[in-house]
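User: Okay, second chain of the day. Same drill as before: sequence in, structure tokens out.
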Amino acid sequence: MNIFVGNLSYEATEDDLKAAFEQFGNVKDVRVITDRYTNRPRGFGFVEMPDNTQAQEAVDGMNDAELKGRRLRVNEARPRR
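Assistant: Same drill. Structure tokens below.
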């Protein structure tokens, strides 16, 4: 399952996200999205977890949790249009 993580602190790194989500299970991939021109973080990212049960637990556990001083908005990522 691919998980959207919003309201991400600009100081949060991919390692920070991975560490936060690993408490719920195996994390396959983590991406913090950056602006292609300035290379600065855009305040959101994605976490991919291969096990859907663990991923759902991560969504439930991390939604509204605090990371680097910001309350995260976490839900299942929707496909791009």
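The first strand starts at residue 2 and ends at 6.

User: Thanks, on to the next one.
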